[in-house]
């Protein structure tokens, strides 16, 4: 029997320890899995802890406020390389948009015939033979189509043709279309200006693309002007027309139209007549509107007064030429009547008294011997006689023998009525309050008298149909037979009217010129300026007056009459009619209106 060990001592094991056994594969796999789970749990715990901390910080510790705006990264910038063109009120006249153009590297096109067929199916406007020739050629770069629309680009992209790619380009768009075609002009396929302001300001538009070019043109006035010109051309079966609305105080061209016009988006292949700007490039014999300058010359010379009489009865013969009246009155006329009835004989005798040197110098001062300063490449050179002989002096006095553009005529006429200051015409909007450069070309006394002459033509002369109640309109008619070869054609003429308003304080000129109008029954067989152009000017003034904020005035008020009155005798002194006695009765007059013969009133 075994004795227990003494107290405090461990029992002695009499058996030998078992031998050590090796670890199994399952045990090792279990241990590794347990380790990986612990690491994964630790990572997940750390991630969610961080998210919890951010949420608490964002919702508890950050003060409330508007969310910040985030902008998407620009994959392809849309900044264009050509500046916009705006009208004076900020309306868009021309802008550039980013487009894609289609090109190919023929060396990379494995099957030109199949590729050409696919491209023509996607772009039917392409010619198969032309495309195939390009794709099978030896060049490394050929254009297939410029400025694709997004829909066209998508259709080609879907074809997946190797060697066919797209190139970023720009295309010019003209939101106003034909309305401003002769002013704005157009660009070529490479976006360079080819006419109008697009051409003359090409460098400015490309060097400063971020700053729009703002014009003096008012799109609202432009619409009215074109509408009335188109109606006049249609009514009188004319071949074309030109119109200008001009600020006489600043020289700004508020509207300018030439008909026929064109689509600046696609000007190729058009009749050259549609691209021709009659308002600035065309130079014409202006007819009786030139009597404006002949009269101003007479007053400036100091030799002639408005009340002086001139023979308007006897024809004037010089060489093989004879100068007659269109419709003479058979008596001597005052200077006021010469202007009122548009007398050729009176005009010739006035310039004879002034002299050729003075006439030549005056016409040069009015700008009729050089192009205007207007910012257009289409700027016509006047046709001036050389040498300036006596017969030229005579015919120039009534608007023949010298050819100028409508813009020449309007600019010079503005200086005659605005106080005598010549402001060069501009299509660029002047900054508010900016000083307007100008040159004194006639005296204020001459200018004041010419205002009265203008008003007299509309109240008592050939321009009655241009009158618009409340706007104190004045002006001058003009009719000139067109010269074809060495002769004038009697049934081929330029009919015009130069109107201005209000004549007590001139603000604007409205000018209309109609090329080869045909007489109608409504005009009693006449197609002169008084019958054709003057009514159009009246309709235009009636519509643009409110747009220009020109106030309506009482034309019979003493203030207006004192500023504009002129009678046939040349008197400028308006006297208020005496009030009839209270007991007086007004005599009953005829109910039949009495009118002078139409031809005498509408020259």
TrEMBL record:
The keyword Disulfide bond does not apply. Residues 1-22, 577-603 are annotated as: Disordered. One of its GO terms (molecular function) is penicillin binding. It is found in: Membrane. GO terms for biological process: cell wall organization. Keywords: Carboxypeptidase, Hydrolase, Membrane, Protease, Transmembrane, Transmembrane helix. Gene3D superfamilies: 3.30.450.330, DD-peptidase/beta-lactamase superfamily, Penicillin-binding protein 2a (Domain 2). GO terms for cellular component: plasma membrane. Residues 244-540 form the Penicillin-binding protein transpeptidase domain. SUPFAM superfamilies: beta-lactamase/transpeptidase-like, Penicillin binding protein dimerisation domain. Residues 1-20 have a biased composition (Pro residues). This is Penicillin-binding protein 2. It comes from Azospirillum doebereinerae. Residues 81-190 form the Penicillin-binding protein dimerisation domain. The chain crosses the membrane at residues 37-62. Its main location: membrane.
